[in-house]
Amino acid sequence: MTDLTALTQLCTPPGQALGTRWGTVEAGLGMPLPRDYKQLADRYGPGSFNDYLSLFHPHGVTEFVSLTGPVPGRLRTQLRKDHDQRTHPVPHDPDTLFACGATDNGE
Fold first, then answer.
1. In degrees to the nearest 10, what's the CA dihedral of 68, 69, 72, 77?
2. Where are the beta strands (DSSP E) in the chain?
3. Residue 38 pLDDT > 90, yes or no?
């Protein structure tokens, strides 16, 4: 059983799986995305889990949940600032990270 299969048994997807043109999305972002992220995004679509964990998605309805909108870049900028100032450094170079979701309180 895959992790996605287990998740769909615990949390029923809201509808039909989406057919996202990932090649176009990845070309626009200038980087490949993980296969498991794309499977999750296609199966659940834009939205959130329990009104808490939002998945950034190419079809996000607002800039705050759009994978191709400004929020992933803003998060990377904040991570870079925290890393450089050593306030809340992450264990990886922020320029190699890309946010694909967030909680309702900014985690």
1. 130
2. 47-49, 53-55, 101-103
3. yes
Q: Which pLDDT tens digit goes with each residue over 41-92?
A: 999 888 888 889 888 888 888 888 888 888 888 888 888 898 889 888 788 8
User: Which residues, other chains included, contact 73 with Cβ-Cβ below 8 Å and sequence gap of 6+?
Assistant: none
Radius of gyration of the chain (CA): 15
| Ramachandran quadrant class, 39 (left: phi over 0; alpha: psi -120 to 50; beta: rest) | alpha
Closest Cα to residue 76, out of 45, 30, 36, 43? 30
User: What is the rounded distance in angstroms from the CA atom of residue 101 to the CA atom of residue 45?
Assistant: 13
Tell me the backbone φ, ψ of residue 14, rounded to 5 degrees. Answer: -70, -15
Distances in Å between the alpha carbon of 46 and those of 18, 81, 91? 10, 29, 29
